[in-house]
Amino acid sequence: MTDYFSYQNDQLCAEQVPLDDIARRFGTPCYVYSHTALVDGYSQFDAAFAGREHLICYAVKANSNLAILHLLARLGAGFDIVSGGELQRVLAAGGAAHKVVFSGVGKTAAEMRLALDAGILCFNVESAAELMRLNEVARDMGRTASISLRVNPDVDAKTHPYISTGLKQNKFGVAYAEALALYRKASELPHLRVTGIDCHIGSQLTEISPFIAAAEKILTLVDALAREGIVLEHLDLGGGLGIRYCDETPPSIADYAVALLGALRGRSEKIIVEPGRVLVGNAGVLLTRVEYLKHGEEKNFAIVDAAMNDLMRPALYDAYHEILPVNIRTTSPLPNPLPQAGEGAIEKSNVLTYEVVGPVCETGDFLGHARELGIVQGGLLAVMSAGAYGMSMSSNYNTRPRAAEVMVCGTVVQLIRERETVHHLLAGEKTFVL
Residue 63's domain spans which residues? Predict the structure, then answer.
């Protein structure tokens, strides 16, 4: 738990609002975000890099809700996007195009035109083929595209293989050994302007050393470029700083910034960083209700109304999310040590080990394995640390409408995305009739 989600009078609250109240008003499953957590996270980044020209570009893929983007834009954030759709979200939320960097390995010509029309800060180019296409698109539009190359430093991020992006075998970026030659080529193309360099090695990093190893390799390349007359304006050092889901001990934002600034000592280039998960991950929870309890010979199942379509991370990465009861008077994790009977404690017979699963028709549809809980049917659970890659990765599998989203600031609660209906899902479809 964090200060933003805490127990008050036996009720788990988002800031000052009981989650039970939110469930009554908006139903379940429901994503709930803390406004204060988002402000505090961004402010920590901004303060950590104070005194040095910098731009904090929020990684939109982590959570792209318009209310979150609007809040960060008002705080002064830039944005790291990976699609034309994300660019349109940023602009709709009031984000400044000149603070947008466009990453991603598969940018289409249409997306390039959209970004050039908007006037984004920079394209993070990830291949020679993309470089040539961007030059052609800019030529046809009579524009000049500002670019950096995303360089793959072949540094092990020591994270889950699905979210590691900086090794030779990953699809992302330009190989380190090929980067110098491609920068030379880029500097010769008439409709491109080389302005920076980009590096991003993965997500959910819990150690500082991979960040510094990658930065040092990138700086060696920056110096080699300068010797050839290719002088860069900015260094985009990516994101990926991890959060605590269970027992991880990631570095603080301040310690991360101190280490990075130490590696950059004596340099004058503008610094760009691209935090995502670390800003929104622990700022959100997924609220869900227990539909059924199913007790078996080998396993007990708590079947809840949230599923893998609502939160894909457990099924996709075998990711751990803490699961807490909303009302500890009716549902509770196993106390340690267990209080004695007669003290208002839960009886041992009521505390069981549960698989917390959803209703989707897949064996892989689970939110948590082997959780010690005293559960009642109809009770509420909160799946913690669900603000990043929760709603943004959700789907309509099994024709399940996506969850509502709510933001809380102090005692104020606002719906920031309506719950989908099956009518919404069918609206764009047509039958085929010969």
Answer: 35-279
